[in-house]
Amino acid sequence: MSSHATPVPMTSTACGPLSGVAEVPGDKSISHRSLILGAMCIGETTISGLLEGDDVLDTAKAMQAFGAEVTNMGGGNWSVRGVGVGGFAEPDGVIDCGNSGTGVRLIMGSMATSPITATFTGDASLNGRPMARVTDPLALFGTQAVGRKGGRLPMTIVGAADPVPVRYTVPVPSAQVKSAVLLAGLNAPGKTVVIEAEATRDHTERMLAGFGAEISVEDTDEGRVITLTGQPELQAQHVDVPRDPSSAAFPVCAALIVPGSDVLVPGIGLNPTRAGLFTTLREMGADLTYENERTEGGEPVADLRAKFSPDLKGIEVPPARAASMIDEYPVLSVVAAFAQGQTMMRGVKELRVKESDRIDAMAKGLRANGIEVDEGPDWWAVTGRGHGNVPGGATCASQLDHRIAMSFMILGMAATSPVSVDDGSPITTSFPIFEPLMKRLGADVARGDA
Over the chain, what HEC string results? Predict the structure, then answer.
């Protein structure tokens, strides 16, 4: 059970055409980083379009606990009066990051090179997730971490009193790990270098540059080499948060599988390190087009129009694309169920250490709803039945995972029989308006069992 909600069973039933405009919330990744970087500036950073889901609100509370003045101005507009790089105060209480792996790992990085101590916890899902992937590189700065067996929360971080710059090669594609090291490097002298063999979402690098940090990115034989000069004075900014492509995935995928649908999702961030799902859907034969392409706040943005696509085909998703769509594989597997043939997804072991083991959770739920799924440690394959042939009818375990819950709600919109989840409450962590938004488009989503 989430620490923020009691279980909320939900059921989705086949519906008529979905139509209209789906104004999804602000990007979660950029929202987290806006609050954290704003807190590390001197002066006032203003943010518009902030995602006001539980995950981001927990990060806002954490920045307040570290001494920043964080104010909700209403309508998605927020103000952060920062304390400067290295200016965090020691929090009085435990920092509760709820369900957010991104939040806790980035916050740990941001305080790791300040001479303060902080204890972190979360809900049952977050407290079961591994933190050593972040605390190990942070230890190179001189940071200490003490947690439960297996490097799990609750965990106390003792910041480095005399941090040293590091050179670190990220062992697995992870924007969270990369970002934690870069944020720690802000308060270390000299140059901190992060090397990643496979590019991951680059919001941290873009935003650090926008806030005035000296940062460079170079593609070399070693991989993508990111060099950050420590101890800058970050400049307060206005951040206009684009809409979240990971949230857009749900109305987009629903439109593709529900007959007669035509849905416009405006203002979606199309950062190349985030847009892998949309490329994949088009390769499957989806009627998905980009309209009004533009640049906002240094990020590529477009309006997405998705229409019912009855002739979807299974494909092999390139492993190199995994980092750009890692959060979207659950809902991709739902679309794959309505395609003809097998959709193979490789290089996805990161899915096993998300809010849940997402491969296991989706495989069990899809099988219960009549879909053939094969899986291995680093891959899974969904054999589609084609439009109109997905039985549905099962109740699936959401495993305290917002994306699992929403994915099965999308499945029910086009399956023969209703699909339920045991707990839809985690949806509020990332997409608090999911239910009313989908209903406005014409979906039949209800609270309670089928």
Answer: CCCCCCCCCEEEECCCCCEEECCCCECHHHHHHHHHHHHCCEEEEEEECCCCCHHHHHHHHHHHHCCCEEEEEECCEEEEEEECCCCCCCCCCCEECCCCHHHHHHHHHHHCCCCCEEEEECCCCHHHCCCHHHHHHHHCCCCEEEEECCCEEEEEEECCCCCCCCEEEECCCCHHHHHHHHHHHCCCCCEEEEEECCCCCCHHHHHHHHCCCCEEEEECCCCEEEEEECCCCCECCEEECCECHHHHHHHHHHHHHCCCCEEEEEEEECCCCCCHHHHHHHHCCCEEEEEEEEEECCEEEEEEEEECCCCCECCEECHHHHHHCHHHHHHHHHHHHCCEEEEEEECCHHHHHCCCCHHHHHHHHHHHCCCEEEEECCEEEEEEECCCCCCECCEECCCCCHHHHHHHHHHHCCCCECEEECCCHHHHHCCCCHHHHHHHHCCEEEECCC
